[in-house]
């Protein structure tokens, strides 16, 4: 058994003001690397189960990636429109570009629409790109930037991603800013270094944090079925919130949602949601099934029970 100390948050929100020392078995799928993270929290340990360290509303995004056809997306939209979703959750789905307009006009207003990418500046002679202005024109409210598939498959670097984020935010789009380490980086004990460097690249250029949601998505967990344990995710989320506190401000650390992504599904979302620094999810595969996505959205209830 490994002793886990849940520190006391200094932020307000949907949470209790205290506790927690508890013994938790290490559930890491890679126990030998689970201990290679270093915690840098300055929060003092205290005494009760804490449901939410941040003060932001629970946020669940569905990243449909390069999936779907007119038929399957029509069915998915219809399932989402008839799903019963808890009120106190911001819900966003991110269809492929070609279906964005169709989804944004047929989907209930309860769910907002996000793009999966945007160009670094105003549109023009940039073949194959989509501008922020065009996204806004069709009612899109968010854009996912820095996703690991853009970083590691397409080759986008921190500076390029930062430029996109700054432009999108300046034009009024919300940004789901993704960060996360590769398996070899975790195994080398570099998880925090990698995440902080990616975070800094956003922090260096963004005009404000009002419209940013941070998605921590360990690359080894994305699309692999190897979800991070609640403890592994909480550990990084806590470190990210502390980084924001030290490098941006206490207010931003409190109100910025830090959501987890990587093999989240209807069965594991409840335990993850109970972690105090997990403010929601970015969901890939499981967001393609309306009822399962609704279950993940509604995992906010686990948080309330824990509070
Ligand atoms: P996954 O993808 O849920 O299929 O692992 C998550 C993501 O890439 O955002």
UniProtKB/TrEMBL annotation:
Keywords, ordered alphabetically: Isomerase
CDD domains the UniProt entry points to: TIM
Pathway(s) of this molecule: Carbohydrate biosynthesis
GO molecular function annotation: triose-phosphate isomerase activity
One Gene Ontology CC term in the entry: cytosol
GO biological process: gluconeogenesis; glyceraldehyde-3-phosphate biosynthetic process; glycerol catabolic process; glycolytic process
InterPro entries in alphabetical order: Aldolase_TIM, TIM_sf, TrioseP_Isoase_bac/euk, Triosephosphate_isomerase, Triosephosphate_isomerase_AS
Superkingdom per UniProt: Eukaryota
Alphabetized Pfam families for the sequence: TIM
Record note on quaternary structure: Homodimer.
NCBIfam families: tim
Protein family: Belongs to the triosephosphate isomerase family.
HAMAP family: TIM_B (MF_00147_B)
Name of protein: Triosephosphate isomerase, PLASTID ISOFORM TRIOSE PHOSPHATE ISOMERASE
Organism: Hibiscus trionum (Flower of an hour)
